[in-house]
Recover the amino acids of this structure.
């Protein structure tokens, strides 16, 4: 019989513990924090910027910025929210810089995207269409939708990450989803839109404005 | 007229504007307005179609495949963070003496582990060298993983050639390691570094390797330029007046 040595799990440090250790001079604590959250941060950067190299540069800039500015973290928000906010800001900075340049859609199966393994061709085409459609949204709408609809964060979390009011996040999502619904042909008859003067709509009371 | 405001500020319909329905769907409208509209919107088939289209859109977004940070991006950022950490340490006055103390503490810890897993480690080290030679493209993570059920230290990183060169993944693995006990006398690390002309730099990482089968300690040191590192491989006998240099190369930059 082969006996296996039972490994005792090491105590798991919380994100706040790691950040405190980093601020106390631990040279490895921040890297551990990065490794813990890198996939989610990468997803936000890649979905927002749609270009692998741009996303890698933005994520690196953001992590260096967070490393250096860790002392400014305040415990009223979560460490992940704080990290996301820095990544989002780094991405939006790059969006502003690249606005004059043509967009580069994600490849259908590049190194940043997992290979499509399902057989359903129509499903594959739909998913590609979603990526292409996302690319056509203005950056502020795309980022809000990536955070909430793709990554699954709450409106409150996304608002902290974006540094705007929750109502603004909802409004950006509303505008973005409507465009996507048309681009994805879920709304097949956009002409059904009622002829409402836009100045009347502005009189409706909205949250968070 | 449709979709405009009638009773007070409450928009009137049907038909409803797409913008209004998208706002209603996203929770943009304040509670009072949403409550006033709910019954009418729920009774309107066209409005329900629009809400269903928005739901379908959200469902498609949620179904996008998850993405993971690529290994090369991870390695690159970890290297940048390691460089930041080294720069911060140098700036705060941390010196090589700190390294020796840290090495001593780790050596005591590792010694206990090595007693417990000495046999398994020996077998695993042989296997690792064989596997690395046969499968040179294995990822750094796989190489770093100890065999199941073992608490022993990772196997040496098997490198070939006259100069130690690393893939980005291997580099990230080395900067995460502090295996100074590879030296016959780890307390002589400072003298070992000085013998190799390193006086002010603190190692960013240290990993046990084999270079063409020869056991060595690979040290990652600041390279003098942003993004550049010095890869110094020394034999276990490295110490006062004995550089025991096996390889001295740069990475990145």
């Amino acid at each position: 019989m082969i006996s296996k040595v039972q490994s005792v799990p090491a105590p798991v440090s919380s994100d706040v513990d790691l950040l405190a250790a980093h601020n106390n001079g631990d040279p490895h604590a921040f890297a551990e924090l990065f490794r813990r959250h890198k996939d989610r941060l990468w997803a936000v950067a890649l979905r927002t910027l749609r270009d692998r190299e741009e996303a890698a540069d933005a994520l690196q800039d953001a992590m260096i910025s967070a490393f250096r500015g860790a002392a400014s973290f305040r415990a009223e928000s979560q460490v992940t929210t704080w990290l996301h906010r820095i990544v989002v800001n780094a991405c939006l900075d790059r969006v502003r810089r690249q606005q004059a340049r043509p967009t580069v859609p994600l490849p259908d199966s590049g190194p940043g995207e997992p290979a499509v393994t399902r057989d359903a061709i129509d499903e594959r085409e739909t998913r590609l269409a979603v990526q292409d459609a996302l690319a056509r949204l203005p950056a502020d709408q795309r980022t809000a939708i990536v955070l909430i609809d793709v990554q699954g964060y709450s409106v409150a979390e996304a608002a902290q990450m974006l540094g705007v009011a929750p109502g603004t996040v909802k409004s950006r999502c509303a505008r973005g989803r409507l465009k996507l619904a048309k681009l994805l042909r879920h709304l097949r008859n956009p002409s059904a839109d009622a002829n409402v003067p836009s100045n009347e709509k502005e009189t409706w009371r909205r949250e968070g404005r | 007229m449709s979709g405009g405001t009638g009773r007070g500020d409450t928009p009137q319909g049907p038909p409803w504007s797409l913008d209004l329905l998208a706002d209603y769907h996203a929770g943009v409208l304040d509670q009072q307005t949403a409550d006033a509209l709910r019954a009418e919107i729920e009774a309107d088939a066209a409005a329900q179609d629009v809400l269903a289209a928005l739901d379908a859109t959200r469902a498609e977004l949620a179904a996008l495949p998850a993405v993971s940070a690529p290994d090369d991006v991870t390695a690159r950022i970890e290297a940048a963070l390691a460089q930041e950490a080294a720069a911060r340490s140098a700036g705060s006055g941390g010196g090589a003496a700190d390294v020796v103390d840290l090495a001593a503490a780790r050596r005591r810890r590792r010694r206990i582990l090595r007693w417990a897993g000495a046999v398994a480690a020996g077998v695993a080290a042989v296997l690792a060298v064989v596997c690395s030679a046969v499968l040179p493209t294995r990822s750094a993570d796989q190489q770093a993983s100890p065999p199941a059920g073992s608490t022993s230290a990772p196997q040496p990183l098997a490198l070939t050639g006259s100069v130690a060169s690393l893939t980005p993944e291997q580099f990230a693995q080395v900067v995460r390691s502090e295996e100074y006990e590879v030296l016959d006398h780890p307390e002589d690390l400072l003298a070992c570094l000085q013998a190799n002309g390193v006086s002010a730099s603190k190692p960013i990482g240290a990993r046990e390797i084999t270079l063409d089968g020869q056991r060595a300690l690979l040290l990652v040191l600041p390279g003098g330029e942003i993004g550049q590192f010095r890869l110094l491989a020394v034999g276990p006998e490295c110490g006062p007046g004995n550089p025991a240099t096996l390889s001295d190369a740069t990475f990145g930059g």
